[in-house]
Write a structure and sequence with these properties.
Elements: H1 2-32, H2 38-57, H3 66-89, H4 95-102, H5 105-117, H6 123-142, H7 149-171, H8 177-199, H9 208-235, H10 238-245, H11 247-260, H12 266-283
Length: 295
């Protein structure tokens, strides 16, 4: 029992670290896409990540199974659409605004969970969705300017994120995390490369700062957090993992204020507090009253 509790605590810590590393990705992507094709940035990021992941997973390749491969492809497809919309959306909106709009996946998560796992959401999850929806409404109207196409693209990112979390929560408990990560990152790399070749603009040159950003995004903001995330999802519920990972938006907002001079209005801050509050509402369960005993 004690060991199970310790693993649960360790898993939650791993998910928090994942959220922190993903949050740093907003800064690097936002800075790099100003002078670099977003589609090729996505392709280079995941091709490099897939290469590093293959080196890590080589000793385990004999354990690859058809079920694991299929599950990883599902996860990788959701991951590709998540990061395609994320990379494109950051061209048109701020990092702080984007991070909280992506956090709207908490609204969609119960529905996606039902579609994938065939389980109805709990009452507090529906309440959390309503609170979060109010927060998102304040954010997109109070973060400086009206709703723009970047905000809409980021909402599509939130939908993809919800599918990816539900898939991860299901498959991480069934298969080896390193091999699963290899397949999902490899799938994303293939899809991103195809889209970049069809619709992207080949970069005229790659500067040292851009190369450093791509390397950071591949290793620190992709491989490491996804390994930690798959470990965490083995030992906590899908709802809990979704809530903890949602703190990515909090970390990203703090970083964008500190390093990118993003301006945060009072309305935006109130919306953010509602979103954060929704995370805790979704985890809250009232204690059952004990029935009085007697003769």
């Amino acid at each position: 029992m004690q060991q199970k509790k310790s693993m649960h605590t360790l898993a939650v810590v791993a998910l928090f670290i994942s959220a922190l590393f993903w949050a740093t990705g907003y800064l690097f992507v936002k800075q790099t896409i100003e002078e670099f094709s977003p589609l090729y940035l996505l392709a280079f990021r995941y091709l490099l990540a897939a290469f590093f992941m293959l080196l890590i997973a080589l000793p385990r390749l004999k354990q690859m199974s058809k079920g694991l491969l299929k599950s990883g492809i599902w996860m990788g497809t959701a991951l590709f659409f998540e990061f395609l919309t994320y990379t494109l959306g950051l061209q048109y909106t701020t990092a702080s605004r984007a991070s909280f709009i992506v956090a709207a996946y908490i609204i969609i998560l119960p529905l996606v969970y039902f579609l994938v796992r065939r389980k109805l959401p709990k009452r507090q999850e529906i309440l959390a969705a309503a609170v979060c929806m109010g927060g998102i409404a304040l954010i997109v109207t109070g973060g400086g300017g009206s709703v723009n196409k970047g905000d809409l693209i980021m909402f599509l990112c939130a939908v993809s994120y919800a599918f990816h979390i539900v898939f991860g929560g299901k498959f991480a408990k069934e298969y080896d995390g390193i091999l699963l990560n290899l397949v999902q990152i490899g799938t994303t790399a293939v899809l991103a490369s195809i889209v970049a070749l069809l619709f992207g603009t080949w970069p005229a040159r790659v500067t040292m700062p851009q190369a450093g950003s791509i390397l950071y995004l591949a290793a620190v903001a992709t491989i490491l957090p996804y390994l930690l995330c798959l470990f965490g999802q083995k030992y906590v519920s899908t709802t809990t993992s979704g809530i903890v990972l949602s703190f990515e938006s909090v970390f990203a907002t703090l970083m964008s204020i500190l390093f990118m001079n993003d301006q945060i209005s009072l309305q935006f801050a109130l919306g953010g507090l509602l979103v954060i509050g929704a995370f805790f509402v979704s985890e809250w369960e009232p204690k059952k009253k004990q029935e009085p005993t007697g003769i």
